Amino acid sequence: MRTNSVQDAWNGFLSTVAERSTSTASLLEKRGRLLSLDEGTATVQLRGLTDADRDQLFDTRSRKRLEEALATALGRRLRLELQDTSRAKAGAEDDFTQRVATRFGARIEE
């Protein structure tokens, strides 16, 4: 399926994954979203993952299967970047955010 729509690409990807693993497709549907799609990379943002979820998605074989499903769904090979935001710190706790706020004399509001 060739598409320029991120939502269409995401739906096609989920359908293709579901043909191979309904549990993985369900996890991606509940915890992920296709953040961006460019010529070489598809970026999926994930949130609220457990350690078991991470094991399921970030395992080398799983990632390869996911990239194969993506290629099947989109009709072209892309690198799949999985961004796990589950462990991201809140703004006030994030070192980078604190440095930027300090540099510009700003206050962090959650």
Structural description of this entry:
Strand 1 and strand 2 (41-46) form a beta hairpin. Helix 1 (6-20) crosses helix 4 (60-74). The N and C termini lie far apart (41 Å). The model has no long low-confidence stretch (mean pLDDT 86). The protein has helices at 6-20, 22-31, 51-58, 60-74, 95-104; strands spanning 32-37, 41-46, 79-84. It has one domain: 2-Layer Sandwich (GMP Synthetase, Chain A, domain 3), CATH 3.30.300. It is an alpha+beta fold and 110 residues long. The protein has a three-stranded mixed beta sheet. The longest helix is centred in the N-terminal third of the chain and has 15 residues, at 6-20.
Please name the defining characteristics of this protein.
single chain; 110 residues; GMP Synthetase, Chain A, domain 3; 3-stranded mixed beta sheet
Strand order of the largest sheet: 1-2-3
Uncertain stretches: none
Query: Which architecture does the CATH hierarchy give at level 2?
Result: 2-Layer Sandwich
DSSP summary, beta strand count: 3
Alpha carbon gyration radius: 17 Å
Oligomerization: single chain
Question: What's the total helix number?
Answer: 5
Helix content: 40-55%
The tally of structural domains comes to 1
Bin the strand percentage: 15-25%
Kindly identify the CATH topology.
GMP Synthetase, Chain A, domain 3
Q: What's the CATH class, please?
A: Alpha Beta
Q: What separation lies between the terminal Cα atoms?
A: 41 Å
Name of the CATH homologous superfamily: DnaA, N-terminal domain
Structural class comes to alpha+beta
The profile of the biggest β sheet is: 3 strands, mixed
Order of helices and strands: HHEEHHEH
